[in-house]
UniProtKB/TrEMBL annotation, chains A, B:
<dbReference type="Pfam" id="PF09827">
    <property type="entry name" value="CRISPR_Cas2"/>
</dbReference>
<comment type="function">
    <text>CRISPR (clustered regularly interspaced short palindromic repeat), is an adaptive immune system that provides protection against mobile genetic elements (viruses, transposable elements and conjugative plasmids). CRISPR clusters contain sequences complementary to antecedent mobile elements and target invading nucleic acids. CRISPR clusters are transcribed and processed into CRISPR RNA (crRNA). Functions as a ssRNA-specific endoribonuclease. Involved in the integration of spacer DNA into the CRISPR cassette.</text>
</comment>
<keyword id="KW-0051">Antiviral defense</keyword>
<dbReference type="GO" id="GO:0051607">
    <property type="term" value="P:defense response to virus"/>
</dbReference>
<keyword id="KW-0540">Nuclease</keyword>
<dbReference type="GO" id="GO:0004521">
    <property type="term" value="F:RNA endonuclease activity"/>
</dbReference>
<dbReference type="InterPro" id="IPR019199">
    <property type="entry name" value="Virulence_VapD/CRISPR_Cas2"/>
</dbReference>
<keyword id="KW-0255">Endonuclease</keyword>
<keyword id="KW-0479">Metal-binding</keyword>
<dbReference type="GO" id="GO:0046872">
    <property type="term" value="F:metal ion binding"/>
</dbReference>
<dbReference type="GO" id="GO:0043571">
    <property type="term" value="P:maintenance of CRISPR repeat elements"/>
</dbReference>
<feature type="binding site">
    <location>
        <position position="13"/>
    </location>
    <ligand>
        <name>Mg(2+)</name>
    </ligand>
</feature>
<protein>
    <recommendedName>
        <fullName>CRISPR-associated endoribonuclease Cas2</fullName>
        <ecNumber>3.1.-.-</ecNumber>
    </recommendedName>
</protein>
<dbReference type="InterPro" id="IPR021127">
    <property type="entry name" value="CRISPR_associated_Cas2"/>
</dbReference>
<comment type="subunit">
    <text>Homodimer, forms a heterotetramer with a Cas1 homodimer.</text>
</comment>
<dbReference type="GO" id="GO:0016787">
    <property type="term" value="F:hydrolase activity"/>
</dbReference>
<comment type="similarity">
    <text>Belongs to the CRISPR-associated endoribonuclease Cas2 protein family.</text>
</comment>
Length: 93, 93
């Protein structure tokens, strides 16, 4: 049985010409982001869609997108030093 | 029983004046990084040391550092689109 990953972190380094497009694609699938790090619940089906959209936009020789897949929100613990990101996130959305 | 987290991702948004110091601290504890994302095995004891060092440097009103703690390397799966980061990492170190 293969694992069903339902939570993901995504971060990238994308050339300036393409970064806005990549940002827009990622924002469709993830609620939370800060700088070039996105994260949130995502179904395996949506993860495939997301990857297909990204593949059409990125330059495979220059850019990268790393996706860290986790079973669910409870397989990790989060800690933040400094200002409360949750608060600034809610100002953005 | 509390969980023993032994793997972590760390990402930050730090003011220009302090970012180099923060980068240097994180590099002491983590082998791999790309842009402002670090990750790797880290003992609970080292995680505490890292946080204490960071707290001395960051401006709590302006900066943030998020640490995602995982039990081990096998609780997540990783996928990369685009260029091979592992390769570019080995060029840096």
């Amino acid at each position: 049985m293969s694992n069903n990953y339902n939570y993901a972190f995504l971060f990238y380094d994308i050339g300036e010409k393409r970064v806005h497009k990549v940002f827009k694609i990622c924002k469709k699938y993830f609620k939370h982001h800060q700088k070039s790090v996105f994260r949130g619940n995502i179904t395996p089906a949506n993860l495939i869609k997301l990857k297909n959209e990204l593949k059409k936009v990125i330059d495979e020789d220059k850019d990268f997108v790393t996706i860290i897949k986790l079973l669910n929100r409870y397989t990790f613990e989060e800690e933040t030093l400094g200002k409360d990101i949750k608060q600034s996130e809610s100002l953005i959305f």
